[in-house]
Structure to design on (232 residues):
């Protein structure tokens, strides 16, 4: 039996976010988590503090721990970071890729099976994990954790803002990226990856006026109250 540590608890929470089983704003009770993992609340609190440092949970005074609800601006920042990291990973695709291609094709086959089945959590996790798998197979071990966190952040955004991006579309876009790599066309693979990330971001149902800047919020807050005028 695997020994449970604060880190393993934190990783299980991130996996649940990637699988869209934990939604933005959902409460994470210390006692419930302690009972679930069979550990002390002290250990759970350590795990939650790890997650807080990574930007996944927040503590609300006298209410407890909650999964964060990213703002539209935070979502845009996470997608921008993913574009930089993932296009950079593909830019260095110069070594023999036969093993990489085989592993990625196996991953895509798993995606297709999950899409054909009824397990929405597995489907969501695999579609997100493709990007971590790509980094791992390309030999960028240090970027795997970074990319897992960035992908989890964009998954929270997709859940919160009710993404219209279809699972089958994501899988098809992953397939095209791998095909470009197999053909040795790194430039095309990079562009397809940028297009894919852009498509996911554009599918979010974000009201452009729903997330004003701090200055705009202040102006709105301090604007005179528009009282109804009596008819003359």
């Amino acid at each position: 039996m695997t020994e449970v540590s604060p880190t393993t608890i934190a990783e299980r929470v991130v996996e649940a976010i990637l699988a869209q089983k934990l939604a933005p704003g959902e409460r994470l009770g210390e006692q419930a988590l302690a009972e679930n993992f069979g550990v002390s609340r002290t250990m759970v609190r350590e795990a939650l503090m790890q997650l807080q440092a990574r930007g996944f949970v927040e503590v609300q005074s006298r209410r407890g721990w909650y999964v964060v609800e990213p703002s539209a601006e935070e979502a845009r920042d996470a997608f921008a970071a993913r574009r930089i990291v993932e296009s950079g990973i593909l830019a260095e695709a110069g070594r023999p890729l036969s093993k990489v291609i085989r592993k990625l094709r196996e991953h895509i086959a798993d995606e297709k099976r999950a899409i054909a089945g009824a397990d929405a959590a597995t489907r969501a996790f695999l579609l997100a994990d493709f990007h971590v798998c790509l980094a791992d197979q390309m030999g960028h071990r240090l970027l795997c954790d970074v990319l897992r966190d960035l992908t989890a952040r964009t998954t929270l955004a997709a859940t919160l803002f009710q993404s219209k991006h279809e699972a089958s579309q994501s899988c098809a876009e992953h397939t095209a990226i791998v095909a470009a790599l197999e053909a040795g066309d790194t430039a095309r693979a990079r562009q397809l990856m940028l297009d894919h990330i852009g498509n996911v971001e554009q599918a979010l149902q974000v009201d452009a006026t729903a997330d004003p800047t701090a200055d705009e919020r202040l102006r709105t807050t301090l604007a005179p109250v528009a009282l109804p005028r009596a008819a003359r």
About this structure: The longest strand covers residues 57-60. The beta strands are 27-28, 57-60, 64-67. The radius of gyration is 21 Å. The chain has ten helices and three strands.
